[in-house]
Amino acid sequence: MKSARTAIPGLVLTDHHLSVPLDHTRPGGPSISVYAREVVHADAEGKDLPFLLFLQGGPGSPSPRPMGPDGWVGELCTQFRVVLIDQRGTGRSTPIHTDDLQAMGDAQTQADYLAHFRMDSIVADCELLRVALQGESGQWTLLGQSFGGFCSMHYLSVAPGSLREVLITGGVPGLDANIDDIYRLTYQRMDEKNRAYYQRYPQDVERVQKLVAHLSKNEVTLPNGSTMDVRYLQQLGMSFGMSDGYEAAHYVIESAFADGGSEPTFHFGFLSAVQAFVHFDTNPLYALLHEGCYTQGSASMWSASRMQGEFPQFDPGAEGPLFFTAEMIFPWMFEQHAALRGVAQAADRIAKKADWPMLYDPKVLAKNTVPIAAAVYHDDAYVPRELSLETVRRVPNMQAWVTNTYEHNGLRADGPRIVKRLLGMVRGTV
Description:
The chain is α/β, with parallel strands linked by helices. The protein is built from 17 helices and 11 strands. Helix 1 links the parallel strand 4 and strand 5.
């Protein structure tokens, strides 16, 4: 493993680059690179601190980039050597971009490659990194946010002996939940979120209707070349699970009426703001493998798209206020999003892949001895609390802090308080 050290005000940072197998069942086969940044407070640099591994949400998002000793990183880096791993396919690890995928070959070749970027492979990478940093007997604490919590539960299923304690924020999965049931719950929660949004901003009912009327009659192209229609507009609901998400969507919508007129203006600023809501340009893995986060021994078959039919209020042509969607991926995205064009067939192969390995082992988890504390957000738009609480009931030594004070971005909004409480829970001081 190659390492390099630098310093910024208040923090000491060490870069680690590790070569890992693309396919962990074939250690002698092709390899990729995984990058991790080790962070410690400048005042604690010389101390013998334990390691904490942060597993980022996603899938397909790199770890946060620390700017100084603040937020949850600042809270933890005086007690731990915080390891921020760029999960395979993201950031400074060997990245995945759609043009690179297309250069690999046909759709099946692309899909076969993508199949190695789920949480089972991510956790196998983490195990190699753990050994490289601490030796075979080393243990570390986990902090998993959202998808990182899913990764943490997989870690507890396959290598619990490597873990000292586990903290999860907004990311406790159902252990054997059917993907269709997950999306049914997600649509139900988003129904609540949409009604709350229009209650807060009733003026946006008419504004959105005018945007819909324009998009229904005109072809609109975003600055990056993506095609915007009513379905694309519905993606503004991607933010509804965040504490400031209603405001983020509202300010974009009102910007189309910024000149005080009664009709929307599809100017560059408005189109750029809409475009910025979705990050497929830099994070295609999110679209390609999102439903793959939930599939165990079965195919997703475009679950979010199929389940939409059970909730007609989300139909883009439905009467009444337009309902926005959330973390849902639809086949049409691979034609309309410029960054996803060219991989539609690979995405379809992924959606129809049925031989996914199991991600969680209920039998192992039923004997769990690792202390686990999880923040379960009562109104979470992305991870249904019903499934999270069922898992908490099934896994020994797991505690839940159920709160409606925070939304899915609680770790970003009030990280120091949340991690202090979770650490107190696993250590018996709270």
